[in-house]
Amino acid sequence: MKIYVDASAAPGGSGTQEAPFRTIQAAADIAVPGDDVIVMPGIYRENVDPKNAGTEDARIVYRSAQPHKAVITGAEALSGWKKDGGIWTARVNNSIFTERNPYTTRVSGDWFMAEFIAHTGDVLLNGKSMYEALSVSDVRKGQPSAASWDRDFSVYQWYAEQDGDETVFYANFQDMDPNTEHVEITVRSACFAPQKEGTGYITLSGFTVCCAATQWAPPTAFQEGMIAPHWSRGWIIEDCEVYESKCSGISLGKYRQKTNDNKWLNWKYKDGTQTERECICLAQAEGWSKETVGSHIVRRCDIHDCGQTGIVGHLGGVFSLIEDNHIHHINNKQNLAGAEIGGIKMHAAIDTVFRHNHIHHCTRGLWLDWQAQGTRVTQNLMHDNTIPVMEEAPEKPDLAITQALGEDIFVEVSHGPTLIDNNILLSDRAVKIACQGVAAVHNIIAGGLVSVGMGTDNGALTLASPRYTPYHLPHRTEVAGFMTFLHGDDRFYNNIFIQKPVRPVMKMLMDTMSGDRNAWDDCNVMAGTFRFDGYMTFEEWDREFEGYCGMGSPASDRYYIPLPVWAEGNIYCNGARPWEKEKGAVVDTEHEITIRLEEHSDGWHLFTNLADAVTQDAPHMIDTDTLGMAFEPEQRFEDPDGSPITFDTDYFGNRRETVTAGPFAILEKHYML
Predict the structure, then answer these.
(1) CATH number of domain containing 157
(2) Which range marks the domain in which residue 169 is found?
(3) DSSP 445-473
(4) Is 402 a residue whose pLDDT tops 80?
(5) In-domain check, residue 95
(6) Stretch (H or E) spanning 249
(7) What are the pLDDT digits (tens) for 614-638?
(8) In what order do the strands lie in the sheet with 123-125?
(9) Contact assessment for residue 168 and residue 159, using Cβ atoms and an 8 Å cutoff
(10) Is the pTM of this model over 0.90?
(11) Is 70 strand, coil or helix?
């Protein structure tokens, strides 16, 4: 059945094309498997709660009749502003907040930096969120933010306080008149999210979804998002524009656990890492499995200008496909800080594929934290996911600054296998490897490998604090074991490493941070695999076990030394350096390699003279047999169905007739990406 919705329809509609409903919620109350909900252009100020699930064979489809013309928003217009000196004031009755008051609810949760004070609400000027100030006097001053990536707009500020049953807003609109501009405040905590768990097999297609007062989404809490499947299976979120969530745009994340919801924040005596382990085991006991949760698809969405993440998830994003999305300008206001920020922040990306995405100008591009196993990151373009120019680097960077440095990909405390292939990675910091079991194949890597051999402990002051994290049965959610990190177990085949000019601020930070091997970050921006100098080859590591027959054999450190590393067929340009034991490394010293990305009216273009340096074929075609298995889970680098992978197609999907290093089967001077 087709159910029609039109915001401009007369009241009392029945959902027919001739008499449509006025709200999407009215359709969501009655839609059943097989129904199509067709939504006409208009503004829908509601938090849609789908009451029924679809089925695998009969989905419930919510579709914008015209792409992006049906707008679901968590905001309400705010008019009647009055001039008060150099700023403006307006009031609303608190009855407008039907769920919670976003202007008394602070952003908070596990791994949020408590010294940052922010509320879940926002004031928006012409669709763009302004900056929250700490007082009325700060609003009057309107000083630019030194941390913001958009300092010019950071002078547009607001502050809110309570006066009885009203919320009073103070705002600095600079030289703009709010009564002639479009000003809104966020009042709802989501835009399209079922309240009930298990409301699966829903498609959301072609909508604009924006402006919600979402809460911080750590892995140990119920993870809010403007769009949120809420612990279900089989959603498709496609062709949507998603923007201006206070925290997260789309959540594929965790349900609310009664005994472990922000437990670290609320019960201080266990470290957050331990409560994270508990939440994983509890979820498994409460039904987390391949058959019940995950297997979502997020595709062709434009996700931007969210405060914490574009897409977030823990446990609920397993076996999912995230492809062809444009994710950009996430956390650029720098008004939120903590360990859960990025274009995509995914815990437990088990058998999840990130493909053909363009991720840029985010505080961290893709962060795979804990349980990246069977994860594949392929054919993505990432750039400008590193802190922009700062006035100066501090002598001793604090944790907030190191969290904000960012990189294209961060794989943290995971045992693998994590496969990174055929990507273009152009940020100063390309891949942060505080983990083991990573394979990088046929990439352009024009930035540093960060935190090699470090970043896996919890940072206790004087005592050992290793992090034990789980690994799983291959292609399942069931936990197979827990282990700390030996490091290594990484592979690099047929990549092109390019050293870019080092910005002074990055050089200062690298010099400051690289001395402490117990730190979380070394700020390395020097390209190449040389960070693995000192690691063994497999043959060297294997010899440690010669003649060993269990108990009674000579004591040694064999079970606690770093795992071996493999590297072959890589090309190093502009001073990028290879691992000291790499087989047949090609170090180009003859050419100055340039690589330049430009945005034109018809899309993004890459200009390069790589063909000057890449003049010979790589040794051989790489496949699953070449890569072997990740050590701890004993799982091969293979597809989610267990079938082997042969890397015979490039970034564009073109067939490789010859095996050439890098992501392009055909070397040209110009690529339309």
Answers:
(1) 2.60.40.1180
(2) 76-186
(3) E-SEEESTT-S-B---SSS--BPPEEEES
(4) no
(5) yes
(6) strand 248-251
(7) 877 888 899 999 999 999 999 999 9
(8) 75-77, 183-186, 123-125, 128-129
(9) no
(10) yes
(11) strand
